[in-house]
Amino acid sequence: MQPIGLFDSGIGGITVLREVRRLLPEEDLLYLADQAHCPYGPRPPDELRAIAAACAGWLIERGAKLVVVACNTASAAALTDLRRRFPDIPFVGMVPPVKPAAAHTRSGVVGVLATPATLAGDLLRDVIDHWANGVRVVSQTCPGLVEHIEEGMFDSPATTVLLRRYVVPLLDAGADTIVLGCTHYPLLLPQLRALVGDDVRLLDAAPAVAQRVVQVLHERGWTGAPTGTPGSVTYATTGDPVRLADLIDRLDLPRGQVEPAVLEACVAPHGPRHIA
Ligand code: DGL
Asked: 220, 175, 180: which is closest to 199 by C-alpha?
């Protein structure tokens, strides 16, 4: 069976894989964690397009029938380019879920946590232009947070300091709804919930992205009769497979085989590091 391919700069996109697995348990899933180029967020659009093309090409060479860009940053910079480069492959991308946030807010203020490249991209700007409807959208970049997550520093005091630094200004601005505009951030959901309390809504796009994957498979007639056999989950990383497997275990994410991956040369590995 041809797998559904997914990629991200690291473990963040596994929050999307988890939802796809929930809705499509019989599909084979192939996930590429491009940890050698993590973080994506501070990189310029031309680098992100080169990296995204290499990741998508890697998945397609391994038979992916559909590619989920399980990363807001890569979607913002590269989704249009990917669709042009690989016209025979359906792509499902993502954008911070400002539309449902604007529909739900009572205070009239929505916070968005995302990377610089996502905040600078047209996808988010278009969504805000179309759907914010008079709601105030307050954006916040989160330097260092992705690196802390990739290092497995979920409960560390340094991570709490960063979360406070990024979330408190949104609360002070009156946000009652906060959009998690990076697929890594749902991995800090317990810590975020402890910080914002029960009255603030935290929105993650992963369930909607998984629904969209189901819809595309239906449209193409690619969903067969149920077999009752669970599909396989395979992870590949351009970083260290042992460390990725350890993070997957610690976060209780879907288990699978973890392999090394080498991408076609695109841009230099490792962008700026922000570990405090
Ligand atoms: N998880 C990614 C996103 O959704 C990328 C984070 C990063 O590498 O900066 O934007």
From this structure: 175
Q: What gap in Å lies between CA 61 and CA 223, rounded to an integer?
A: 21
- Which one has a higher pLDDT value, 164 or 264? 164
State the catalytic residue, choosing from 55, 71, 142, 266: 71
The finding on whether 118 has its CB within 6 A of some atom of ligand 1 is yes
Q: Could you confirm whether 142 is annotated as catalytic?
A: no
Is the separation of the CB atoms in 7 and 31 below 8 Å?
A: yes
Beta bridge partners of 52: none
Domain residues of the chain, as ranges?
A: 4-94+207-260, 98-205
Q: Which of 3, 11, 58, 6 shows the shortest CA–CA distance to 39?
A: 11
Give, as one character, the DSSP assignment of residue 276.
-
pLDDT digits (tens, 9 = 90+) for 4-41: 999 999 999 999 999 999 999 999 999 999 999 999 99
Tell me which H or E stretch contains 77.
helix 72-85
Tell me whether the CATH fold assigned to 4-94+207-260 matches the one assigned to 98-205.
yes
- The highest-level CATH class for domain 98-205 is alpha beta
**What's the CATH architecture for 4-94+207-260?**
3-Layer(aba) Sandwich (3.40)
Q: How far apart are CA 82 and CA 45, in angstroms?
A: 13
